[in-house]
């Protein structure tokens, strides 16, 4: 198991072969994806174009998983409310342009990633799982995305990032775990949490 599988494992997309998954003492090991989402576990996948958004679908449809502000008590969808909720979310999370009727495939990679983040961060998750959150986006968008992630942590979310970007990990993480062949081989915190140390431990035999 590589680091990229950890978010999928914690989200319930990959079954655990051993051990348990606990959230505030509750055992989620056998819980499915939907149950974990309901309990506040959100995941931003590494391949956003394949797993995170529907490129040929309007932004508001991609964001329809937002909290039930756009739905009636019976679960009936209301297009205009969904469009309004999507516009609000896109504005708050910095999607450019904040056009809910635009197809997501028309957005830049960075703005596609912001759509994915908006979908999950608007739920104020208890746990936010991210697989290579800034992969394939420009420097400006990387900064924006990491600001959104840090804001979620400030609000109380437990944030787990799987990434091969050692500089990024050193700059924003409180603790870094190094995995090799599915096992934790090092835990870095405090003064040991530097880009050079992460690289050295990750590349050690």
Outline the secondary-structure elements.
Layout: H1 6-11, E1 22-23, E2 26-27, H2 33-38, E3 41-44, H3 48-52, H4 59-62, H5 79-92, H6 109-121, E4 127-131, H7 139-154, E5 158-162, H8 166-172, E6 175-180, E7 183-189, H9 195-202
Parallel strand pairs: 3-4, 4-5
Antiparallel strand pairs: 1-2, 6-7
Helix pairs in contact: 6-7, 8-9
Keywords: ATP-binding, Nucleotide-binding, Repeat, Sugar transport, Transport
Protein name: ABC sugar transporter, ATP-binding component
Pfam family, one: ABC_tran
Structure description:
By secondary structure, the protein is an alpha/beta fold. The chain has one domain: Rossmann fold, CATH 3.40.50. Helices cover 39% and strands 15% of the residues. It contains nine helices and seven strands, in the order H-E-E-H-E-H-H-H-H-E-H-E-H-E-E-H. A three-stranded parallel β-sheet has the order 3-4-5. A hairpin with a 2-residue loop joins strand 6 and strand 7. The longest helix has 16 residues. The protein is globular and about 55 Å long.
**Shape, principal axes of CA atoms:** globular
What is the domain total for the residues?
Answer: 1
Query: What's the oligomerization state?
Result: single chain
Instruction: Write down the CATH topology.
Output: Rossmann fold
Mean pLDDT: 92
Strand arrangement, largest sheet?
3-4-5
Total beta strands: 7
CATH class, named Alpha Beta
Write down the Rg: 18 Å
Q: Tell me the structural class.
A: alpha/beta
Proportion in β-strands: 15-25%
CATH architectural designation: 3-Layer(aba) Sandwich
The largest β sheet comes out as:
3 strands, parallel
Helix content: 25-40%
For CATH, the homologous superfamily is named as P-loop containing nucleotide triphosphate hydrolases
- Span between termini: 16 Å
Sequence of secondary-structure elements: HEEHEHHHHEHEHEEH
Uncertain spans: 66-73
Count of DSSP H/I helices: 9
InterPro entries: ABC_carbohydrate_import_ATPase (IPR050107), ABC_transporter-like_ATP-bd (IPR003439), ABC_transporter-like_CS (IPR017871), P-loop_NTPase (IPR027417)
Organism: Nostocoides jenkinsii Ben 74
Pfam families: ABC_tran
Domain ABC transporter: 9-135
């Amino acid at each position: 198991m590589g680091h990229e599988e950890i978010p999928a494992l914690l989200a319930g997309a990959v079954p655990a072969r051993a051990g348990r998954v606990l959230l505030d003492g509750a055992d989620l090991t056998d819980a499915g994806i939907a149950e974990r989402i309901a309990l506040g576990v959100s995941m931003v996948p590494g391949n956003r174009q394949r797993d995170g958004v529907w490129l040929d679908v309007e932004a508001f449809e991609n964001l329809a998983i937002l909290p039930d502000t756009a739905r009636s008590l019976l679960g009936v969808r209301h297009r205009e409310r969904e469009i309004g909720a999507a516009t609000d979310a896109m504005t708050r999370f910095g999607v450019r342009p904040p056009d809910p009727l635009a197809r997501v495939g028309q957005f830049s990679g960075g703005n596609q990633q912001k759509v994915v983040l908006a979908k999950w961060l608007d739920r104020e998750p208890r746990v936010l799982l991210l697989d290579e959150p800034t992969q394939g986006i420009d420097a400006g968008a990387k900064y924006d995305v990491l600001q959104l992630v840090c804001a979620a942590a400030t609000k109380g979310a437990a944030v787990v990032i799987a990434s091969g970007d050692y500089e990024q990990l050193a700059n924003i993480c409180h603790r870094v775990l190094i995995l090799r062949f599915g096992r934790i081989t090092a835990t870095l915190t405090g003064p040991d949490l530097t880009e050079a140390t992460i690289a050295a431990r990750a590349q050690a035999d």
